[in-house]
Amino acid sequence: MKLKNILIVVKDIEKSKQFYHDLFGLNPVLDNDGNLIMTEGLVLQDEKIWQEFLRKDITYKNNACELYFEEDNIEAFVEKLEKLYPDIEYVNRLMTHSWGQKVIRFYDLDGNLIEVGTAM
After folding, report:
1. Which Gene3D superfamilies does UniProt cross-reference here (predicted)?
2. What is the model's pLDDT at position 3?
């Protein structure tokens, strides 16, 4: 068995598709009208479909998981983030851990937690 995808719920698939393309270079692979599979295995699911499927309320910004990306030129990534999404909400701006890894944490447009760090 192997893990195939990670699904996150979003309010506006088009805005989220643009966000993940702009910052991480992810591209659509398969669009099933409210269920968009992108490169690297990220799936964007329309909140209405997800809520109907689960029959439960969606809790955004629950801080229970994060998407983790690695970037060698993290300073350039931070510049791109600040330029393209100046109103993004940060958990922490660029910092260096005691073990030397540089990381930044922020929320996507729907409150999904993202961490970008340098390779370990």
Report:
1. 2,3-Dihydroxybiphenyl 1,2-Dioxygenase, domain 1 (3.10.180.10)
2. 93
